[in-house]
């Protein structure tokens, strides 16, 4: 059974686009061109324009074409962090990007139980273990995991990897706390579309 994740019960209201500073409107225009709609988190972050600009610049650096982290790996990171933190918007949009980058929904649907799936290679498994160690409350990154990361990444790449995981935690926790809704980018199985209520247990 599938459901389209759409809900509009947000805890902070968005303002009319015309009320935002003129220098932020090109960001909104670009989102509408790329996604067909303005992203609700952007409208909320933009209530504090300097904060929005800083977040947008940081995201642009982490998701740039020249990133040493493979695009599919970046998407696996963003979806898994989003699942753990129960961010409906993030699961929706990042799952759509992951499906586009891999050409199917297979990894999207298997990601929540990646340990049991044969779809993920050893490099992806180490990264997903790192994601969970950084994201789940009460877990730590131990020496053994750090050493396994060095089998696949150099120090600069580990900094980028860690930065992306940390950024996605910031983004997904912000969106989840304010109950920002999915915007209908990706049709997911109902179990995958529903945030994990026990994600931090």
TrEMBL record:
<protein>
    <recommendedName>
        <fullName>Carboxymuconolactone decarboxylase-like domain-containing protein</fullName>
    </recommendedName>
</protein>
<feature type="domain" description="Carboxymuconolactone decarboxylase-like">
    <location>
        <begin position="49"/>
        <end position="132"/>
    </location>
</feature>
<dbReference type="GO" id="GO:0051920">
    <property type="term" value="F:peroxiredoxin activity"/>
</dbReference>
<dbReference type="InterPro" id="IPR003779">
    <property type="entry name" value="CMD-like"/>
</dbReference>
<dbReference type="InterPro" id="IPR004675">
    <property type="entry name" value="AhpD_core"/>
</dbReference>
<dbReference type="Pfam" id="PF02627">
    <property type="entry name" value="CMD"/>
</dbReference>
<dbReference type="InterPro" id="IPR029032">
    <property type="entry name" value="AhpD-like"/>
</dbReference>
């Amino acid at each position: 059974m599938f459901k389209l994740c759409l809900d509009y019960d947000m805890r902070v209201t968005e303002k009319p686009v015309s009320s935002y500073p003129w220098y932020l409107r090109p960001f909104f225009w670009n989102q509408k061109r790329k996604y067909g709609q303005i992203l609700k988190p952007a409208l909320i972050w933009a209530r504090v324009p300097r904060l929005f600009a800083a977040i947008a610049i940081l995201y642009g650096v982490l998701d740039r074409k020249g990133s040493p982290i493979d695009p599919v790996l970046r998407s696996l990171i963003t979806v898994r962090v989003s699942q753990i933190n129960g961010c409906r918007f993030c699961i929706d949009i990042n799952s759509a990007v992951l499906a586009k980058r891999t050409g199917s929904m297979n990894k999207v649907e298997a990601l929540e139980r990646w340990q049991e799936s044969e779809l993920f290679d050893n490099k992806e498994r180490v990264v997903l273990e790192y994601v969970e160690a950084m994201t789940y409350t009460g877990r730590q990154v131990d020496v053994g995991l750090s050493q396994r990361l060095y089998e696949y990444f150099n120090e600069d790449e580990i900094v980028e990897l860690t930065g992306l995981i940390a950024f996605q935690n910031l983004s997904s926790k912000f969106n989840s706390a304010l109950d920002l809704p999915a915007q209908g980018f990706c049709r997911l199985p109902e179990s995958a579309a529903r945030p994990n209520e026990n994600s931090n247990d």
